Every structure is written in structure tokens, then in C-alpha cells.
């Protein structure tokens, strides 16, 4: 389809300082170089252009069908900013999308866009091998290129997000091209399933970039993976920031559909995936007229340029009204951290401990005041564990860069002294959590090793089995440590010798169905798990023999057990809480409670404490249920981000953390 030419305007002189040449450096990263030399034609026209030998070679050797080139040329007039957007390309080495990429690279090199932006989901699961491969593929594009991660890079990353930064230099960008501010940032979610959420440090980056680049009314185009509505927890808050500036478009992907609509008062373009649900292949083209109009088109791979469908606007919804709590229940906002928090908390009589997205490990007093903090300069995803006067937490990098990951054993200070501690190197970033049992800590060392650690830092390990990335805390009971990994397997080790007793998987090779982020429940001689394959499974604790599997509900990763091990509690993807008896030869449901969450895929573990079962939602709702009857006791909305975890304190209070940095304390008796 050939769209009509737009009226041509006289080209405006372009500032050469803003037009830069990008090329791979010796490490293969796209790096900014000094402006290239000008062609004779560019010098005479007053514009700065870059002579790119690779692009000229591609144009000589790879000629697109004439009609395709003509149709694209009809869209592009001098002096306008043209951008190619690739979204949701989902490349793994050798898969169907990977085989399409040579044609994509050929077309992009041949078109007349000034730069390329990749708006996330470059890979299927963010594995280092996938990231290295797609980086090499995209290095064949002889144009300025910027990439931001999608949920498939941030959710299951083997490197805690570090490989993406190593290859592309950052997860965000803020530049000016032809007088237009282009700002891109990551939307998560980070190292666990759930809604997207823009981290506090990225919100600060966005605010500062807007102030510097668009403070005088300059036009802005924003790039992110999640659209602002629905699955981005703080999307409305981001929109409120953007509405104070001349934002001409918010460009995203993620939905695997393609449309344009006003979202929260902002013109939003949701881009198509490389392979659509209808079997078509393509990407998107943007054209900004230099003043106020941003146009978007679909480009079919090897075919036509088509318009993008317009849909009805989406308005910001008011925050839900507060639900009354029972008189004897108190939910207290104990502390609000300025950074995002992706960990639960360890709670002792002397304090509350957690890690932040900006690399700080924080200790609060029992009253919620900051007692001390240590900056490790790497984000925390591991929930701390307290044992024998020590606080243990996983590190996504050792101090001084001595190892890819580590486990810190920090003494529980009684005087506020934050010095000291032991640091145990690990072969990979440690995003998982530990479980204390009989004065020792059981914990995965990122990937490859599983350890039993004492408070002096001495440890034994099983490294004869090459475990995948371990994320959920292990269950330790009856002489067995049971844990899952992102390698499709559930493992059972002897708690004393750490020798492998058995391993189990669901028979599928799909790694994303692994029980990698679940805390198993051990009770009555059984191990009960749920997993992203949407099944609940019971296994014999001694042998690993599968006893039953059930998919009566849409189970995923949120699981917990009763204090006596007799009941497993699972939150479903339909926002229900299900109680199931352990020790039975078949699936035996005790009760089901509708929590009123609606669709919910957040993996927050379930906690039973003193006869009350606590569950957390993807958008900040805490629900309390009677453990005996399944009756919903109360709900409390603490924010707009996912609940990370629950911890029972020594005084019987329950502590909850939210991604937006809020720490809550719940106290009082069951109604």
C-alpha cells in the first residue's frame, strides 16, 4: 500500500553535534562515536550527515523490492525525524524469529530512518546466550541503535540484568535528535513475575532528563516496553510526570497487538511484535513532522506499509476507596524507602532488614527509623534471613568485583555499628533466599552450587549437580532440603550430607515452566509445589515419586504452608486462595476463598501466622483469611505495586514489603 506524499517543506539546517555515528566497539557494544565526516552534498545543504560504509555495502548487495522502497520513500520528507521501532522480536538462536532477522536487518539498513529503537523483549527468557546472539544480530544494523529491556529480559535474567547493561551500555537512554528529546527506560518486572514497575531511580532519571532536554517546551518521544495502562503498576504516576511536558508520543510494545490510543491523556503507540498472532511479520515506522505531529505505520516484512488501528482512549482510574479494618487489627506504614524494594524483610528483636534496588542494605529500628545502611552498589533481590545473630543476604556482585555474586553474613549490630561481616563468593548473582534450620542456613549460591552455611561463614556445598538459577527459598524439614531451580527440576538433598536424594520435573523441556521461584511445602511425608505450568503437584518426600498433579485452578508460584505442615495454601491466577491437605493420596481441597484480586500472577509467598493466612496481590492489596474456615477477614491496599513477601516477627506481628519501598507492620488479633 502506497500512502500519499506529504507536502514537502524546505529542509531546516540540522545541528551536526546531535547527529552521531554508532558502531560496535571491540567488545561488540554499540558506542557513540564522534560525528562522522560530511558528504559534499551534506556540506552544501547545511546538514550534517554520516557516511556509513556498512550501510553503503548493504545497499549495494541487498536490494529490496522496488515497490517497498517507493512506498517507504513516499512517507519520508526532508527535515523530518524518522525512526524504526522493533518490538517483541523474541529471538533465541535458531528459532523462527531468528531466521527472520536477516531480512529485518536488510530492510532497516535500506530504509531512510535516522535511528532504530528496540522496545524490549529481544529474547525469550533473557539468557546470556540469547542476549549475546541478538546483540550480534542487531550489530548488523548500520544505524544509531538504542535498546531497552522487556519483561523477558528482566524477569528470568541469569545475570540479574547485568549482561544487558554490559552489551548495550545501559537500560535507558536520553538523547536529542533533530530537536526532539528521545527518552527510553526500563519497566521491569525485575527477577520475578508480576506487573511492570518503573524503579524509583528510573523515575528520577526520567524527571531529570525531561527537565534538561525538554524544559523549554521541546517535543518529547518516550520509549518503554509496557504501555502505561493495565500492567504497569505505576503507569498513572509516570503519565502525570509526562503530562507536564510536550510529549508527542509514548511508544511501547508488550501486548503483541498493535494499536494507537490516548492513555491517561497521552498519545500512545503500542507496537506490533515481529511475529503476530495472525502469522504476519513486521515492525513499525515513526515519522515526526518537526512540530507536533507524530505518525505511526506498520511495516510488513518484505511487504506493504499500513496504517495503525486507532482505539478508544483509556482514562486514569481513581484509587480504590479504603476498606474498613476490624477494630482489633492495625496495619501500620512503618517506613517508606526512597528506592524500590524487591525483597522481603528479615525481622529480629533488634530491627528490620531489607535490600533496595539502588544497592543499599538497610536496617530499621523496631520503630521504623533508619538505624544504618550499607551501599553495595548492586541491586538486591534476595530476601534476608536471620539466624544465630547473623543476617544473611544474597549479593548480585561481590564488593570490589571479586566474583559474579556472593552471600553476605552481616552481624546483627546491637550498637548501630554497621561495620564487619563475612562475604562468601558465589559463581553467579544470588537472587534467591535462604532458610534457617537448626542454627544453619540452607541457600543456593546463585547457580551451580547449593550450600549449608554456619554463622562463622563455614560452609559445605553440593556442586556435583549443576543446578540452574535458584530463586525460591528451600524447604528444610525431616532431614531433607527441597528447592527448585530454573532448569525444569525440583531437587531434594540430604540436609546433613547435601547429597542428592532425588530430582523431579514435569516432563516438559520448557524452562519457563520450572519451579524456580516457589517455596515448597513439606508436611505429612509429602512435598507440595506449584509452578508456572499451572499445576499443583505432590511428591513423596523420601523418594520423589509423583503422587498426584492437579490443575483444578490456575496455580502459578504463590504458595505457603501451615505452621504444622498439614495444609498447603496457594494463590491462583484468578485471585483465589486455596487450602489443600497434605498427606493425602489425591488432591484434597479444604476450602477456597475469593480474595477479590481478579487476575493476579504475582509470586508473593503465602504466610500463615497464628490462625490467619496472608496473601498479597500484584497491585498492593494485602488479604487476611481465617485458616480454619477460609473466610475473608479483611483487605488493605497499601499501594500500587506488588507485595513482595510476608515475615512473622518475634512479637507475632507480620511484616510486608511492597516494590514501591513501603514497609508495613500488621498487628492485632484475629477477629
From TrEMBL:
It comes from Victivallis lenta. Pfam families: Metallophos, PQQ_2. This is PQQ-binding-like beta-propeller repeat protein. Residues 536-642 form the Pyrrolo-quinoline quinone repeat domain. SUPFAM superfamilies: Metallo-dependent phosphatases, Quinoprotein alcohol dehydrogenase-like. Residues 81-257 form the Calcineurin-like phosphoesterase domain. PANTHER family: CELL SURFACE PROTEIN, OUTER MEMBRANE PROTEIN ASSEMBLY FACTOR BAMB. Residues 29-44 have a biased composition (Basic residues). GO terms for molecular function: hydrolase activity. Residues 1-48 are annotated as: Disordered.
